[in-house]
């Protein structure tokens, strides 16, 4: 580890993080209500139809983000695209208050389009604020990731509760209002000009290799994460019924987020003052992932109340794993890309994750019958990727030493 000197976070970090937190609160709050709204008295849809529409909503975000990245980098600029995206997403939330399928489809389309404009461009602009102090990139994006998790947690809690208690329209209106408020910090923020950014000095071959490795490795992580989630959710349901720890039922679904919050804060403090390579962090992420899955596999298929603590320890290690991987992908893309096309690259980073998840999803039927199999595949896969990252970190150190 190397001590970081003369590099500090700025008020732009706060502005972008608050904006992203409010946008995620709006988006996840809306998502918590939309299926319930579709199957409710107003639209009275079949549950299967509602879940199919929901699946299309989530899946189409990948493509809308590519459109948003192209608009931001090539046509109207990143900051304008963020603001326009926020307004479109807010209108989408308000449109859901129209009690008809027309209002539903219009609202969903606008939310998807607005989120696609907003997401890659705010990530891109946030990353650019750190390009003259790249040793703080990991810490900065961990602050950003903390804001995302905090926003999604509060959005589900607040909008979900108000929507179910006082009516779905109230929830959708609050979602839209939060979205409009999220634009204010962006308007107040200063956009980093290309002339203010130090030129990327890394050889083109190394930049391409690092970006490709990050794409594949992070996609595989979320694929293995999804494979294990069948067993994780199964245990969650069983333990929530027999546990005597007094954890409310609705909090069982958010335990991972609850762990992520304090771990993020620890990582932010540590990585603000001490620097280690991004690929070393990715390697540690897979090591902690193997430990988490290894602990899970010790729990028998039918757990007892005593296994609750074991399950929580596994989730703790999984949260540590996630913090070493999820923010770091954007940190690597920011560091090694051409900043002119950073939003486009960030939008493309969602494709490998989605593709790998779809491939792994083909085996879900077999995994539902044998949840332990997904866990074993996840452990084996993470071990292989972890060993590969150890080799890459060692090779990087060796080549750096030889060129000094």
From TrEMBL:
Keywords: Cell membrane, Membrane, Transmembrane, Transmembrane helix, Transport
Localization terms from the record: Cell membrane; Membrane
GO biological process: oligopeptide transport
Ranges that cross the membrane: 21-39, 51-75, 82-98, 104-123, 143-162, 168-188, 208-225, 255-275, 282-299, 311-329, 341-363, 375-395
Cellular component terms per the entry's GO annotation: plasma membrane
GO molecular function terms noted in the UniProt entry: transmembrane transporter activity
Pfam families registered for this protein in UniProt: PTR2
Keyword Disulfide bond: no
Bilayer topology: Multi-pass membrane protein
Top-level taxon of the source organism: Bacteria
Keyword ATP-binding belongs to the record: no
Location (main, coarse): membrane
Family: Belongs to the major facilitator superfamily. Proton-dependent oligopeptide transporter (POT/PTR) (TC 2.A.17) family.
Protein name: MFS transporter
Source organism per UniProt: Wocania arenilitoris
């Amino acid at each position: 580890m190397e001590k970081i000197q003369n590099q500090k976070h700025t008020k732009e970090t706060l502005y972008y993080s608050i904006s992203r937190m409010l946008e995620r609160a709006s988006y996840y709050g809306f998502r918590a209500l939309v299926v319930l709204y579709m199957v409710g008295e107003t639209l009275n849809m079949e549950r299967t139809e509602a879940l199919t529409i929901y699946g299309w909503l989530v899946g189409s975000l990948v493509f809308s983000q590519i459109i948003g990245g192209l608009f931001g980098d090539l046509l109207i600029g990143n900051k304008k695209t963020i603001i326009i995206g926020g307004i479109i997403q807010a209108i989408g939330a308000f449109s859901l208050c129209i009690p008809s399928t027309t209002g539903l489809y219009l609202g969903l389309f606008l939310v998807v389009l607005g989120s696609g404009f907003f997401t890659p461009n705010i990530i891109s602009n946030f990353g650019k604020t750190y390009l003259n102090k790249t040793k703080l990139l990991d810490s900065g994006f961990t602050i950003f990731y903390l804001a995302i998790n905090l926003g999604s947690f509060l959005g589900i809690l607040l909008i979900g509760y108000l929507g179910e208690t006082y009516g779905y329209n109230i929830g959708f209106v609050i979602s839209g209002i939060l979205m409009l408020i999220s634009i204010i910090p962006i308007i107040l923020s200063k956009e980093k000009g290309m002339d203010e950014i130090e030129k990327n000095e890394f050889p083109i071959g190394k930049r391409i290799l690092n970006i490709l490795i990050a794409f594949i490795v992070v996609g595989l992580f979320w694929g293995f994460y999804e494979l294990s989630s069948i067993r994780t959710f199964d245990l969650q349901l069983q333990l929530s019924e027999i546990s005597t720890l007094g954890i409310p039922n609705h909090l069982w679904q958010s335990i991972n987020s609850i762990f992520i919050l304090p771990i993020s804060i620890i990582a932010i403090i540590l990585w603000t003052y001490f620097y280690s390579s991004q690929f070393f962090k990715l390697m540690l992420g897979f090591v902690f992932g193997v430990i988490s899955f290894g602990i899970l596999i010790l729990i028998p298929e039918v757990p007892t109340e005593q296994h609750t603590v074991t399950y929580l320890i596994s989730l703790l290690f999984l949260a540590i794993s996630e913090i070493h991987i999820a923010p770091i992908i954007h940190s690597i893309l920011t560091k090694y890309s051409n900043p002119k096309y950073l939003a486009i690259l960030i939008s493309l980073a969602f494709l490998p994750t989605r593709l790998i998840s779809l491939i792994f999803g083909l085996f879900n039927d077999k995994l539902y019958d044998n949840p332990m199999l997904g866990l074993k595949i996840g452990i084996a896969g993470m071990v292989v990727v972890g060993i590969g990252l150890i080799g890459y970190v060692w090779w990087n150190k060796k080549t750096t030493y030889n060129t000094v």
